[in-house]
Amino acid sequence: SFPSDEVIRKRLLIDGDGAGDDRRINLLVKSFIKWCNSGSQEEGYSQYQRMLSTLSQCEFSMGKTLLVYDMNLREMENYEKIYKDIENSIAAAHEKISECKKQILQAKRIRKNRQEYDALAKVIQHHPDRHETLKQLEALGKELQNLSHIKENVEDKLELRRKQFHVLLSTIHELQQTLENDEKLSEAEESQETQMEAEAKQ
Fold first, then answer.
1. For the residues of 108-163, what is the DSSP string, one character each?
2. Could you tell me the residue ranges of all domains in the chain?
3. Where is region (Disordered) located (predicted)?
């Protein structure tokens, strides 16, 4: 984190030359002033060497700062790229999740259909197959046809017995009439004989 203005002010109060680049610049200015006010050639040369050293340090610090700045820019670009990659990954993950949800729903429908098919298959297994059912129907048809013939024969026999019974009743009725007529005729003959006997006695 960067130092606040208050911290910088306190550093300057404690150390008049400041710290870091500020210190180097202040030293350079002081060296330049001393170099301008130098009385001898040796002192001027010494101040000149100090200024060159301070300039070298400032250039090195500036180069270092530029390198750090470039590194920070590259890091920012890298972070942006990573951020975009993360966003793309998140979008792809959402699409994958959506696709997985669709697949889960489809799997649930397939499982439900299979359960229904299994239930139907169990119900179908309890019933005979089509071929067996057709054979049973054919057998039942033949049996029904035989029963129909038997019924017709029984009805014919009943009709014959009814006619025979009717003939028998007619014969009995005729016989009864004949007997009644014979009985009346016998009574009339007896009455006539009785009358003739009575007339003969007179």
1. HHHHHHHHHHHHHHHHHHTS--HHHHHHHHHHHHHHHHHHHHHHHHHHHHHHHHHH
2. 1-124, 149-201
3. 181-202
